Amino acid sequence: MKPAETEVVNIMAEQVVVCPKLSTNEDEAMRAFDNGRDLDVRDIDDATNARLLKVIDKNLLPLLCLIYGLNFVDKTTLSYASVMGLQTDLNLQGNEYQWLGSIFYFGYILVEYPSSYLMQRFPLAKYSSFNIILWGVTLTCFAAVNNFAGAATVRFFLGVFEAVVTPGFTTLTSRWYTKHEQGRRVGFWFSCNGVANVVGGLIAYGISRGVEQHGASIQPWRILFLSFGLFTIAVGMAFLYYVPDNQWNCRFLSPADRVLAVQRIRGNQQGIGNRHFKMYQFKEALTDPITWAFAFFGIAVNIPFGGITTFFSQIIRNSGYTSQQSLLYATPGGAFQTIVVILNGIISDRLQQRIYVSFVGMIIGLLGAILLAALPLSNSPGRLAAYFLTQASPTAFIALLSFISTNVAGATKKTTVGAIYMVAYCVGNIIGPQTFQQSDAPRYIPAEIGICCCWGACLLDLFLIRYLYCKRNAEKARIRSAPGYEKAEKSEFKDLTDRENPELVYVV
């Protein structure tokens, strides 16, 4: 038997027999070195690397993009429903609608760390699929609610099951792509928020018009929840079947390519996962100042997001448009966001300057917020354009998501930092809808001024994060250039944290 054939047979055997037991300090990627196999990432030629990247993109990105779009549209269905008769049909009083916007994030925040721990402990794709299917079932149940209590209960559990999506996809991206590919890929799947805004608005408009012209046995907003919920269930089942937990149980790669797919990400200095909880990494995450700079940003940037996501249909309607027009006219904002986010990912990876590039989107969003606060309700085109500009603001939020993917190493630390960031995301989204008080309608001046202040603070926080990363890169460079320094063998696959591994260079 030829050597190459022997290697393939040995690799294939790992799929049908019990794999050698790894130590708690080793990453799942260490299986690539069984039977003496070892390749430097430089040994993988450009053609092979391009071929692998194309196969991985083709099989992972479409489902990641589709599900992340559903993740957004499922949350914003409430905003569409608010101008389709939901508030009247459920007899919502006072600030009860605002609380429906916030209570989603109480469910999210309650399970965020437990869910992140389980995501590390159990197979990533299977655990994610379980939650996706259950969130689809929960969204479908919203079509049956008849009062505030029922709606609040469904919204709470919707948050519980959607909590896995963003941290799960961030982790999945870090396991399959090199650090200079990740910013673009995170941008791709996050950009589907904008696509979902376009598609969701068009579907909501179509249902509203259809019911108006032809009638229906149930209210149009109930049809909307049923449609999105059932489709989410179907996509969750597809995710369960197609998406692998890691390279070792991947259907779309040959046994030899599975090893190459692991070897090509050696430069990330992170590996593909370790299922053991490590207390020292947990403590490092809690004592790392960058963790809390992330947390501050997560709260500050999402107070505006939470308010706008819940109230964008009403913001447009209060600017002089009809309810149906507010559904239709929201869609260009989604298209604008998609274009900005994709360009942000491509340019930031090409220039290797994620923070500076993401600044541009934040500044455009801040300009839109300032115009919303300044323009009178009578200036309908100006306020609509201002709303569109606010949709460029997620670029910096995406940059920090990609930093968790590329710059935070150690499985337990990555899980912990990701959970803290998403808890902060929830806190911001809980506060956000509450800034739009009924007593301030239809102008909502305090909320609009608050959006400007929050995004201004975010810009300063981004400067701080970049400064800290650059300072640490300089310290690591001094360590690597010191006399007698030697890189630890296979350090990239030993589940080291970013601070204890001198070879990990932070992306900025």
TrEMBL record:
- Where is the protein localized? Membrane
Which coarse location class describes where this protein primarily resides?
A: membrane
PROSITE patterns recorded: MFS
A single Gene Ontology MF term assigned here is: transmembrane transporter activity
User: Pfam families, alphabetically?
Assistant: MFS_1
Q: Which residues cross the membrane?
A: 60-78, 98-118, 130-150, 156-174, 186-208, 220-243, 290-315, 327-347, 359-378, 384-404, 416-432, 444-469
Its membrane topology is listed as: Multi-pass membrane protein
* Major facilitator superfamily (MFS) profile domain segment(s): 60-508
The source's domain of life comes to Eukaryota
**Would you tell me the Gene Ontology cellular component terms?**
membrane
Which of UniProt's keywords are assigned here? Membrane, Transmembrane, Transmembrane helix, Transport
List the InterPro entries: MFS, MFS_dom, MFS_trans_sf
Q: State the family named in the UniProt similarity comment for this chain.
A: Belongs to the major facilitator superfamily. Allantoate permease family.
> Which PANTHER family is this protein grouped with?
ALLANTOATE PERMEASE, PERMEASE-RELATED
UniProt-recorded name of the protein: Major facilitator superfamily MFS_1
